[in-house]
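Page 47, continued from p. 46.
Same chain as before, 209 aa.
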Amino acid sequence: MARYTGPVCRLCRREGEKLFLKGDRCYTDKCPFERRRYPPGVHGRSRRTKMSIYGIQLREKQKVKRIYGLLEAQFKRYFEKARKMGGNTGENLLSLLERRLDNVIYQLGFAKSRNQARQLTTHGHVMVNGRKVDIPSYLVKVGDFISIKPGSRKIPFVKEALESRDLGAIPSWLVLDKDAFEGRVVRLPERSDITHPINESLIVELYSK
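Result:
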């Protein structure tokens, strides 16, 4: 299965809520979801709204996959790892997803979307503890320093994203030094750090069938 390369606004419409996949546009009246809140496709308006329990669980899993830009096999690997960690599987899963390097780049404000952060990482513009890391799925640890390479700090969208980033919007498990183009992981993310409406118990129930 290849990565989805179509219009990302269709994904928001399919899930029935904003997933904030397109940066600043999601906050304007140009967002297609604001004008068409029904599912995409010729039968979008006429689709029945009542879903089975399985359908609700499936949609929740698809929503989280799309937020973090994962394929099914990748997502299942994260779930299996979360299940083996002990404790609350759903919270472990979300913590692992939040620790992905592309998500951290996005949360620190070096990019306006996770997709943009993934591109920044794979193109070799990101360093962890002073060494280049070009793997978006790299899991950061407490104490890690994440920065933009000195030669990449003049990239227009990086400067624009960082200048518009509100320090108050950065999750409390990260700290940012705007002038140094550097962030640090001060603790592991907790469930309370995730503000997007996600019901992880539905995902656990789906995979437990």
